[in-house]
Amino acid sequence: MKSFIFLVLSVSLAYGARLFTQRNVHPLSDEMIDRINSIGTTWKAGRNFDKSSLPYVKRLLGAKRGSSKKLRQVHHEINEELPESFDAREAWPNCTQIRTIRDQGNCGSCWAFSSVEAMSDRICIASHGALQVSLSAQEMVACADLGGCGGGNPESAYEYYQNEGLVTGGLYHGDGCMPYVFEPCMHHIKGPIPTCPETYKPTPPCSRKCAAGYKKTFAEDKHYGQEPYTISSDPKQIMKEIMTNGPVTVDFIVYADFPSYKSGVYQKTTDDVLGGHAVKMIGWGTENGVDYWLVANSWNEYFGDEGYFKIRRGNDECGIEEDVVAGLPELREV
């Protein structure tokens, strides 16, 4: 009888049984971390943020969810067996931007980052590596008038890309026309780069001019996208989209346990909600019998698994399969 109970428990854990921590536990407390690790779920928790930084964490969650519903939906005919695992970094190794973990700094700009990252990846993929650009999150945040550091939605970011185009820029002090103005900082505990200031950064002013010394004008540096679209929440449709065209932008509900993610396949262990977050989905796989999505975050490489996290696949965990936004680039002559 004991062996049967153990077998049932093991199978339940592998397939994501809900073993909930008690409500109203402080999200960034040792108690939260200890409870997550004690219930034997599919992931490990650890210290990523100081307990006092909860208001700051909530400011990072700038995704307004549900916006993809008015986009046209693309449906893929799937006539082949999809691979058990896929990683865009390995599928397109010459596209270096896919492997870059960006840092949104002290700004609720996840909606912009997750979008321009996937857009940049797809320019390289569609051009077979001939065009390697890092589109400007700075322009999207400062000039698109879509919410800036106060939060926005990926759908609008893709529409701006189609209608207005984006210049290059990339990281803080990076190459390109309009680099990001917020410097990388430790969103979490002390580390090798400066700690993010507690004071919330407002949306920076828009200047439609390239950085001094850049060889193109603002208008000459523009890259445009085609009409954006969404994919249904069917995991196979999402998988086919990623392996065909490249990473996609998704958003999900952030629960109180997620800020403590360190490794493994995340699934929520609490019902306490902190906000919405947008990220870039780059692949999938299976770990210890649990199917997962592979996701790039924008809180620098010191969060989670060197900037990445895995989240349970196939059950719309935290709503991550509901709002999939993508678009193809309008390629220029090179």
TrEMBL record:
Gene Ontology terms: biological process: proteolysis
Keywords on record: Disulfide bond, Hydrolase, Protease, Signal, Thiol protease, Zymogen
- What Pfam family does this protein match (any one)? Propeptide_C1
Q: Which residues form the Peptidase C1A papain C-terminal domain?
A: 82-328
Among the GO molecular function terms of this UniProt record, one is: cysteine-type endopeptidase activity
Entry-linked PROSITE patterns: THIOL_PROTEASE_ASN, THIOL_PROTEASE_CYS, THIOL_PROTEASE_HIS
Q: Which residues cross the membrane?
A: none
Where in the sequence is the signal peptide annotated?
A: 1-16
SMART domains (UniProt xref) = Pept_C1
The entry sums up its family as follows: Belongs to the peptidase C1 family.
The name this protein goes by in its record: Peptidase C1A papain C-terminal domain-containing protein
Q: Which organism is it from?
A: Tetranychus urticae
Lineage summary: Eukaryota, Metazoa, Ecdysozoa, Arthropoda, Chelicerata
